[in-house]
């Protein structure tokens, strides 16, 4: 070893700083031999000179006795400094363990060390390209091992976020990158992603000002038998997860349910809410009546799934019932009698096919266009009725979005993860549900390698493409949707090359 001027460990390489962080807290007076070799150094805290390896640096700074060196008197009096040093040391030890983990060898690559040295010495572009193929094969094997070892479903390979993550890593030079750990994924990163999703959902929420929104509610019990009430906001933009309320220890009577619905209505904005949809249980019906009393312009609607059976048993006179509900609706939305008279006049024109509604195009398009499109094209002559029609036609007729969401909730809150807190589980459901809603609104969802990525499965069977988008919009339950056939041309090409 040779003498050198005083130099701190800031001149050492990045790997050494990561694995031996305590060198940064001493100043070398004589160059050390190797990363853990002997050296002369001065403590940056007590300013005392010592000689020894990294083991002695650690013993001195971390107050480890019987290591042939005195402990630092300054660090021993500063609890916060000692805590930071120990934290840095523990993180370094964890990195060492990860780097030394014995792995089962990957399948051999056709490119060995001697091949690499030839490339470096000759600069042969063709060899360099071949080496890239070798690196790709190695990475493919590592990704495959991740799937096999964790029991991940193969359709995860179609997830655009999985693809984007590896593409970003390949295009970016992130030296020494370590993937996020267990705690980071379930805490900080989860909250950051939730905030990001909330920002991306803003355009959908803003559309509620014009089109309105329905609050859908349904109940469920998680793996620990905790009762939960799921709240969704549904419109023609899709079903947006709002919250899931843990009702453990609460008496779920009409007052309690009405209180929860009222809180969500205030959160969304009562002027945007058209209706609340629940099942037709007596408690929910009573809660719906309370909501209608508090918010005169908001309807309570029993879920059509729960009421169809009752209607089939004793079918009413549909025209009379529809007329009665229309009159009730007009009275709620237009409490002023003069305004109500105008909208009744507009409705008469629509119902009797009078004036503009008697036009041939208007009559032909009634049975050929989607209702919302028809009102946009032919409803301008009745502006009050048109505005009401567009708002009502944007609403769902059932709370099935809530019931489908329980499949997602159950998927996330499985028996293997049943100790997860309701709040963290709610955050996961919020991100899981809404990120899929946002993905389905992009053009890439219906084409390319990631087409319909969130409904594909590992059991392949053809659905002939019929109704496939409708199925995608109606299901959030992957295990029941593992029957979609996709043509993976890239993988077919690789298999043909191997043959």
UniProtKB/TrEMBL annotation:
What are the residue boundaries of the DUF659 domain, all occurrences included? 180-314
Record-annotated membrane-spanning stretches: none
* InterPro entries to which the protein is assigned, alphabetical: DUF659, HATC_C_dom, RNaseH-like_sf
One molecular function GO term is: protein dimerization activity
Ranges for domain HAT C-terminal dimerisation: 355-435
Task: Report what the protein is called.
Answer: BED-type domain-containing protein
């Amino acid at each position: 070893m040779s003498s050198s001027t005083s130099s701190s460990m800031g001149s050492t390489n990045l790997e050494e700083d990561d694995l031996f962080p305590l060198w940064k807290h001493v100043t070398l007076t004589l160059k050390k031999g190797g990363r853990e070799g002997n050296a002369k150094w001065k403590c940056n805290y007590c300013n005392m000179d010592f000689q020894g390896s990294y083991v002695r640096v650690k013993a001195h700074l971390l107050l480890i006795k019987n290591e042939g060196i005195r402990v630092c008197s300054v660090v021993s009096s500063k609890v916060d400094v000692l805590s930071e040093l120990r934290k840095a040391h523990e993180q370094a030890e964890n990195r060492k363990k990860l780097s030394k983990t014995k792995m089962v060898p990957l399948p051999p690559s056709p490119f060995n060390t001697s091949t690499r040295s030839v490339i470096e010495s000759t600069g042969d572009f063709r060899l360099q390209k071949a080496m890239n193929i070798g690196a790709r094969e190695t990475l493919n094997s590592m990704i495959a091992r991740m799937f096999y070892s964790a029991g991940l479903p193969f359709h995860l390979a179609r997830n655009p976020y999985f693809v984007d993550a590896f593409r970003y890593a390949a295009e970016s030079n992130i030296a020494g990158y370590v993937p996020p750990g267990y705690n980071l994924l379930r805490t900080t990163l989860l909250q950051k992603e939730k905030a990001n999703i909330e920002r991306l959902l803003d355009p959908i929420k803003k559309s509620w000002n014009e089109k309105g929104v329905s609050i859908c509610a349904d109940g469920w019990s998680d793996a620990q038998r905790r009762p939960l009430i799921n709240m969704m906001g549904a419109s023609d933009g899709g079903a947006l997860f709002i919250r899931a309320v843990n009702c453990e220890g609460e008496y779920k009577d009409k007052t309690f349910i009405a209180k929860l619905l009222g809180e969500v209505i205030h959160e969304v904005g009562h002027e945007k809410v058209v209706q609340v949809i629940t099942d037709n249980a007596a408690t929910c019906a009573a809660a719906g009546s309370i909501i209608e009393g508090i918010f005169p312009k908001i309807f309570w609607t029993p879920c059509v799934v729960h009421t169809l059976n009752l209607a089939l048993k004793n079918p009413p006179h549909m025209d009379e019932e529809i007329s009665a509900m229309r009159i009730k609706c007009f009275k709620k939305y237009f409490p002023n009698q003069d305004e109500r008279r105008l909208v009744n006049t507009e409705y008469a024109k629509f119902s009797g096919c009078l004036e503009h509604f008697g036009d041939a195009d208007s009559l032909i398009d009634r049975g050929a266009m989607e209702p919302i499109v028809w009102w946009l094209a032919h409803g301008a002559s009745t502006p009050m009725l048109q505005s009401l029609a567009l708002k009502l036609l944007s609403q769902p007729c059932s709370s099935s979005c809530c019931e489908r969401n329980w499949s997602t909730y159950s998927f996330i809150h499985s028996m293997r993860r049943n100790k997860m807190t309701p709040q963290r589980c709610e955050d996961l459901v919020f991100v899981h549900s809404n990120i899929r809603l946002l993905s389905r609104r992009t053009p890439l969802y219906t084409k390319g390698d990631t087409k319909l990525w969130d409904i594909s499965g590992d059991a392949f069977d053809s659905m002939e493409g019929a109704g496939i988008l409708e199925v995608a919009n109606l299901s959030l339950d992957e295990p029941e949707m593992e029957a979609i056939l996709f043509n993976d041309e890239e993988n077919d090409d690789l298999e043909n090359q191997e043959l």
